[in-house]
Amino acid sequence: MKIQSRRAVIVLFLLGFFIFGIVFFVSSYLKNASTWVFYSGNKHIYKNGRISTGTIYDRNGLTLFSTEGGKVKYNSDKTIRTAVMHAVGDSEGNVSTGALYAFKKQLSGWNLVNGVYHGNGSGNAISLTIDAKLCAVAYEALAGRHGTVGVYNYKTGDILCMVSTPSFDPENPPKVDPDSEEHNGIYMNRLLSSTYTPGSVFKLVTLAAAIDNISGVTDRTFRCNGTLKIDGGKVTCPSSHGKQNLSEALANSCNTAFAELAIEAGANQLQAYAQKAGFNSVMYIDGIKTAQGKVDVTAASKTDLGWAGIGQYTDTANPATFMAYMGAIANNGVRVTPKLLLNSKSKQTSVLSPDTADKIKTYMRNDTILNYGERNYPGLHLCAKSGTAQINGQQPNAWFAGFLDRKDCPLAFVVVVENGGAGSKVSGPIAGKVLQEAVKTYAGKM
Ligand SMILES: [Zn+2]
C-alpha cells in the first residue's frame, strides 16, 4: 500500500507538471506567436533579412510589390517606386508605417490556427487605397523639397495620395547619412508621423470655436491696424487690413482679428475645439498610428491665447489629422477617418454641427475666390486655407489645406513644404496639380 500510494503521488506530480507545461506553452503561443513568426530568421517570410512574401496592389490593380520564388520585385517605374515608398515600405523594414511592415500579417497569410500558410508559396495579396500614378504626380510636384502631400475621399476615407519627401528608390536603397540634410527623416512618412507648427491653417479651428460661442460673430466688423495690444503683450499682422467682416478676415488671414476671436471664445472653448479637430489625440489608419498634434492653452496668458488662436504659441499639427479635419468641414461636420486598405471600413465621428461646417465651408470657398484665385484652380470648386507657419530663425513651413466642394469628387487634401516660404505660393500650386489630376481620373467615378 505504501509503495502504491507513493507511486500515485509521483504519477500525479508528473501529470501536474505535464499539464502545467501544456498550459505554459499554449499561453505563450497565444501571447507571442505573432512576434515569433515575424523574427527575421523565419525563412518562410524573410530571405536574407528582407520580406519575401505577399503582393501589394494600388487601388487600380497596379503591382507595387510582389514576390516570385522568394525574389522581391517593386513596380517597374522608378518615379512610382520612389513616390509610393513610404506607403508600401522598404523590404528592410526601416519604414515602420509602410504596408510591408504594418500589414505583414495579412501579407504573409499568417494566423494563429494555420500558421504561415501560403498556397503557392508567395503569401497573400492586399490592395491599398492609393493611386500610385497620382502619388507620382505629387512626388514630381514636390520637386526635391522636403514635405508631404495627402489627398483622401472624405466620404469613404480612402487615401488616394500619400507622398512624403525625401524618399528613395527601394530597389536601390541609399546609404543613409542621418546627419545630412538630404536624408533628414528619410524613413519617416511625414503625412502620418510628423508634426509642424500649423500657423494660419489653425484659424479654421478658432473660426469654429468663434461661430459656436460668440453671438453675432458672423455679422460683426473687425478693424485691423496691424497690431493688437493685449495686457502689455501684442499680436501683430503682416499688414494693416482695416475694416473687414468675418469672411474677409479669414481671406485676409488677419492675425489680429483671429487673436481677438480666440481670446473672446476663451481658453476652454479653444481647447475643446482643438480636441474636436483632432489635436491631442492620434488616429489609427488601419492600425497605423499617427503622430499627435498638440494644443495646450490651459496655462496660456491672454497674449499667448491670441497667438495660439493663429496657430503659433506651442501649437503643433499632424498633416494627416488636419486633412481629416478638412474632410469633416466638407462632410457636414462628420469626420471619416482616413484608411489605406481598400476593403476596410472607416470610423465616422461627428466633430462639428452641420450648420457650423457649412459656414466654414462658405468662408473657405470665398477665400479661394478672393485670395488664391479661381484661375489658379479652374473647375475644382476649391475651398482652401493657406498657412505660412513662422519658426524661429528659419524659412516658414508652407501649408495649404482644404477640399473640393463636389459631390462627384469628394476629396480633402493637405500639402506641407518644410521651410518652403508662403503657403499659398509654394504649396498651393502643388495641391492644384495633384487635384486637377485626381479630378481628371475620378470625377463621377467615386
Ligand atoms: Zn490684419
UniProtKB/TrEMBL annotation:
Cite the Penicillin-binding protein transpeptidase domain residue spans from the record.
147-436
Look up and give the organism this protein is from.
[Clostridium] cellulosi
> Taxonomically, which superkingdom?
Bacteria
Report what the protein is called.
Penicillin-binding protein transpeptidase domain-containing protein
Q: Which SUPFAM superfamilies match?
A: beta-lactamase/transpeptidase-like (SSF56601)
Entry GO CC: plasma membrane
Membrane-spanning segments: 9-30
Provide this UniProt record's keywords sorted from A to Z. Answer: Membrane, Transmembrane, Transmembrane helix
Annotated GO molecular function terms are:
penicillin binding; peptidoglycan L,D-transpeptidase activity
Which GO biological-process labels does this protein carry? cell wall organization
